[in-house]
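anyone seen this seq b4? input:
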Amino acid sequence: MWTLIHIIDWVLWLFMAPSVLYVFFYAIISLFHRKKKPYPTEGIRQSSFLILFPAYKEDTVIVHSVQECLKQTYPQELYHISVISDHMQEDTNEQLRQLPITLFTPQFEKSSKAKALHYAIEHTENAYDFIVILDADNVVLTDFLEQVNASCQQGYKAIQCHRCAKNSDNDVAVLDGVSEEINNTIFRKAHNTIGISSALIGSGMCFPYNWFKEHVKMLETAVEDRELEILLMKQHIFIKYEGPIPVYDEKVSNPENFQRQRLRWMTGQVQSLLLMLPYLPKAVMTGNIHYIDKTMQQALIPRSILLVLTFFFSVLMTIVSYLWSIKWWVLFLVICLSIYIAIPRKMRNSALFGKIFSTVKLVWLMLKNILEMDLKSKEFLHTTHGK
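predicted toks r here
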């Protein structure tokens, strides 16, 4: 019996250890990141941009987001905004029609962000140099396009801007915002530090217009950003993370929205892993380190689940056998240290670490999601925004 328990103990530890070590490695790498001087915005070529706002039932936030985006200091003749209004109220559409934008009003039987993006591209007559994708709740600064254009002129063909929280209504919103910043540190900033592509987020993204027009029709799942990553990695296109260009994003403020959002992300992560595995041998043979890293990324256990489970098994194995528990306590301390390093300094305060109870509750919701995942589903799980 003790032999069987010991085997199970090691199997579980070996199952979790790679995810912890991956996070720890990039957390340490992030410490070596150096701030670079801003790119020059004057005296450079000014490209043309199409900004797309896919909006599914986003009546509470879309008008404000578009109005803020229209305040760009960038030349008006060099950018245009299109909103894909999917199942929004006529009053909202009428407000949008009063703005100098293009409004598309498709009525999809089964809505998805990928369908909305494809629809907009298919119905756009003019050609542009680049395309920018923003979510309906995203707010950008007046120099947003100036900064994006400066990055584009450096030769980058895929750009991910710094998506950050615009609200901190309660514990859920605060923790969601902190989680996003940890992702920015590990999967974006640290990756770029050693020359590996950043992860995409789904908004605040910029691509060459012609490239996107050619590839948007290939998007099929509810996690189009992961599909875009796969396409970019196969073509050896580097994804640049632009930390100095903020895109303010509304964080979820209630457990129900948090659970739906994480269910979509967790399902999409497994779906992406299954999509990437067949190409992995070729990536290894050709030395495509970006693709290999992204495949490993899809196989990671979520950090919050790692945090709770490593602590649980540390305590449990301390009761069973102190010697057996040492490796679990080491794993728990390593994931704690990794998360601490990855949290931006300005966010490290006693108020944040006082939200432990809320963290445990949210992890429980994520664990419940494992039982609800449908890997064959391509349905878009909508997260509501606004009050």
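The chain is about 55% helix and 10% strand. The mean pLDDT is 85. kinda curious what u guys think
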